[in-house]
Structures are given as structure tokens and as C-alpha cells.
Design brief:
two-stranded antiparallel ribbon, 22 helices, 2 strands, disordered N terminus
């Protein structure tokens, strides 16, 4: 026992960079769109770890636009406020740092980080489900927020975790049966938690990801095999989310909210025997299709529970239209970070009472300018052009689609989860070593030190 414990501790020490990245994800999950003091501290720690690396592998078509984006962001802040502190850069610089440090990981570390990130997403979901059940019994039911504090952000966080889980299961090495069973058991927890957020934008993003998964899966298999595969995926999604929807109905639409406890026990049983359910779907393809089709019922029930989602969507269209009216005011540097909300207050249009336009690309175009917006578009195009699995393409699609109807790009934990679960050992990566690595991390560390100093004075 002692020897085994020592071996595990030694493995964690060998994977210290991956552990640091996981801890960064853990802390960023608690702070939403960011807290400069904490983000700067996290960034400094990651930079210190990065300076000592002999080599990092990066995709130039991702790093260069990201550097340009952050540079424009700081210039826009300086023009607007006379400093580079009051803007997006103090928070979003952490995303570049995470990507660079992830570039120093080996294949084993990348697999470990991906699986650990999925486990963390499942823990976030578990906390939220338990909190939902408790509040439903002692107070009243409300959309699940968990530790993220926002149901829409939590929704896409869990969608990304779900796609990443499928990717982990597909690449699980032969002989790691116990690990695969454990990962499989997390799926209903992620799906039930997602359902309890009642985040329609996340549901739409998830559906878009599944469509892309089917298209990419078709490239390597026949239509018959592709439809069977997608049928199993949708069957699991319908079943897992169905448990969450039933839990919400029990809490909000009946006089017996304690029934949530019964459904919670059922969810635990479903998690423990999820591998049996998967075997059942594989053996009985007809039943898999029937269960998948029941997803339409789950979707209708979700809309009936939250009918306000339709008016919310219409409001987001209005918000986007309002934002487009400002996008040509200053095409080069935008109107400045956090300025859209102020202008919207006095522009005679509907006041939306939010800091971000619910289309991240348009929001960046409005506040940072069209060049910064173009940098993000380049990163999106690059991702679809590079080699990655069908599930990874699906995960990124879900994230991208959600940003067209929400502002998840500004939640640091969401983007960090995408980076950590999409990272791969790419043949097209460019190796950077020696002085260049130190300059990258050293320069960013100086910025974080400045941001930290500004946040404390």
C-alpha cells in the first residue's frame, strides 16, 4: 500500500505541469469572467513553470492571432482608459499562458489532463445536482448554477465536458478497463446536470456538435454504421438528460419535491450501471433508435418548463442588432472594453442590462475592433483545418455555436476547458525552445506582475 501510494505521488510529480493546469482550471471555475488578482497570481505560477521548459510545441496559426488579439485588446484599453489594466487583457492573457504551457506536455500528460478535466466537470455537475435537490426540498426549484454561478455558462461547460468524455473513452488504452468504467459512469452525471441548467443555448450548441459528429463520422464509415453510432449517442443523451428533466419536474411541478431524492438515487444507480446500458444499446439497435427518438419528448418538456426561453432568444437577436450598430464606430480599436453597456444605457434602444452582447464575435468587434474579431475568426478556421477527431470537432463546434448566441468566450474556465481537452500532439506543431520559450513566458509574467500590482494598490 505504501509503495503504491509512493508510486502515485511520484507520477503526480512527473506530471506537475498537467497538475498545475488542472488546478488553474479548478480555480478559474470559481471566478466566472475573472478576478484580476487571482488570475494574475495563477498566471504568474504558470509562467514560472513555463520558463523552465526546454521546448514547447505550438500551432503558430493559433498563437500568433491570440498574441495579436491580446495586443489589440491592450491598445484599445489604453486609448479608452489611459492604461492597459482596465480591459480584457488582464484576464484573457491567462488563456494564452495555458495554451503555451499545455504545449510543453507529453502525450501521457495530455491524456491525463484531459481525463482529469472531465472528472472536474463531473464534480461540478455533482455539486450542482446535490445543491439543486437540497434547495428544491427546503426552498424551491431553480435552474442549476453550481459553483459557476450562471446556468448558461454551466450548461456549455458540461456540454464541453460531455464531448471530451466521449473523446477520452474512444482513446482509452486497451487494458485500462477499470478506468473506462469509471469514465463511463460520469456520463449520466454530466447529462443530468446539463438538463437541470435548462440552458437552451447549450442544448442548441450540443445538437450542433452532434450534427458535426455525424458528418465527420460518415467520412470513415458507411451511412448504416454512422446512423447506428449517432443513434447510440443520442440514446444516451436522451436518457441522461431525461433523468435531469424529471428531477426538475418533480421539484417544480409537483407537491412532492422529496421525489428528487428518489431520482437522485436512480441517477446514482444509472451511473454505476451505465456500461451495461451502453452494452444494451450496442446489442439492440432498434431500442437505441427508439430511446434516441424520445429525445424529442425531452426537448419539448424542457421548453414547456421554461417557455421564457423563446422571448429570451428574441431579446438576444435585438441585442445583436444593437451591437451591429456600433461595430463601425471605430473599426480599428472598437469603442473600448466595457463601453457597450454604457452606450446602450443612453442610445434610446432597449437597455439589456448586461456587460456582453450575446454573440462573442460581435461583442469583440464592437469593443475591440474588427481586427481583433478577425483574429478570433482565424483561430476558428485553423481549428477546422487541422487534424483532430470527429468528437473534438464536435466539441469545438458546440463551443463556437454557443458563442454565437451567448458570451461563453469571456468565461475563463470554459475556454480553459476547451484548450485542455482539445490539446493534442500535432504533427504540424512548431517547436520553440531555449531563449524563445523564456521570452514568451518571461514577457507574459511581467504583464501579470503589473496586473497584480495594479489590482492591489
Amino acid at each position: 500500500m505504501i509503495d503504491n501510494t509512493g508510486h502515485k505521488a511520484g507520477s503526480l510529480l512527473e506530471y506537475y505541469k498537467a497538475v498545475l493546469l488542472l488546478l488553474a482550471l479548478f480555480m478559474l471555475t470559481f471566478i466566472g469572467v475573472g478576478n484580476i488578482t487571482f488570475v494574475a497570481l495563477i498566471g504568474l505560477i504558470l509562467c514560472i513553470a513555463g520558463i523552465g521548459q526546454k521546448i514547447i510545441r505550438i500551432d503558430v496559426w493559433i498563437v500568433a492571432p491570440l498574441l495579436m488579439y491580446n495586443g489589440i485588446s491592450m491598445v484599445s484599453s489604453y486609448v479608452t482608459y489611459g492604461n492597459i489594466y482596465d480591459g480584457f487583457a488582464p484576464m484573457q492573457m491567462i488563456l494564452l499562458t495555458i495554451y503555451l504551457l499545455a504545449g510543453s506536455l507529453g502525450s501521457g500528460e495530455i491524456r491525463w489532463l484531459k481525463r482529469a478535466s472531465v472528472v472536474w466537470a463531473a464534480i461540478v455537475s455533482t455539486v450542482g445536482i446535490c445543491e439543486f435537490v437540497y434547495l428544491a426540498i427546503v426552498q424551491s426549484a431553480s435552474r442549476m448554477e453550481s459553483i459557476m454561478g450562471n446556468p448558461n455558462a454551466l450548461g456549455i461547460f458540461l456540454v464541453i465536458g460531455w464531448f471530451a468524455l466521449m473523446d477520452c473513452n474512444e482513446e482509452q488504452p486497451i487494458g485500462k478497463y477499470r478506468n473506462k468504467l469509471f469514465l463511463q459512469s460520469l456520463e449520466p452525471i454530466l447529462l443530468s446536470g446539463l438538463a437541470l441548467t435548462l440552458s437552451m443555448g447549450s442544448f442548441v450548441a450540443m445538437a450542433a456538435g452532434v450534427v458535426v459528429m455525424a458528418l465527420y463520422e460518415k467520412r470513415r464509415a458507411s451511412w448504416q454504421k454512422t446512423l447506428a453510432y449517432i443513434g447510440r449517442v443520442l440514446a444516451k443523451a436522451s436518457y441522461g438528460m431525461g433523468i435531469g428533466i424529471l428531477m426538475y419536474i418533480a421539484a417544480d411541478k409537483t407537491d412532492a419535491p422529496w421525489l428528487c431524492l428518489v431520482l437522485l438515487i436512480y441517477l446514482v444507480a444509472a451511473a454505476l450501471y451505465w456500461h451495461r446500458f451502453e452494452d444494451f444499446l450496442t446489442a439492440y439497435k432498434g431500442m437505441a433508435n427508439i430511446i434516441a427518438a424520445s429525445g424529442l419528448v425531452v426537448a419539448v418538456m424542457a421548453v414547456l418548463i421554461r417557455p421564457s426561453a423563446i422571448s429570451t432568444f428574441a431579446e438576444r437577436i435585438e441585442m445583436i442588432r444593437n451591437g451591429l450598430g456600433y461595430i463601425t464606430k471605430n473599426p480599428l480599436l472598437g469603442i473600448g472594453p466595457y463601453q457597450w453597456r454604457v452606450l446602450n444605457l443612453f442610445d434610446g434602444d432597449k437597455y439589456f442590462n448586461t456587460w456582453h452582447i450575446h454573440n462573442a464575435l460581435i461583442h469583440v468587434g464592437v469593443e475591440l475592433g474588427l481586427v481583433a474579431m478577425a483574429m478570433l475568426v482565424i483561430i476558428v478556421i485553423r481549428f477546422y483545418r487541422k487534424k483532430s477527431s470527429a468528437v473534438q470537432k464536435s466539441e469545438f463546434t458546440a463551443f463556437f455555436v454557443h458563442n454565437l448566441i451567448d458570451a461563453s468566450f469571456f468565461y475563463l474556465s470554459i475556454v480553459s476547458l476547451v484548450i485542455m481537452t482539445e490539446k493534442d500532439t500535432e504533427n504540424s506543431a512548431t517547436a520553440i525552445s531555449g531563449i524563445a520559450t523564456k521570452l514568451f513566458f518571461g514577457g507574459i509574467a511581467v504583464l501579470f506582475a503589473y496586473f497584480l500590482y495594479c489590482s492591489l494598490i
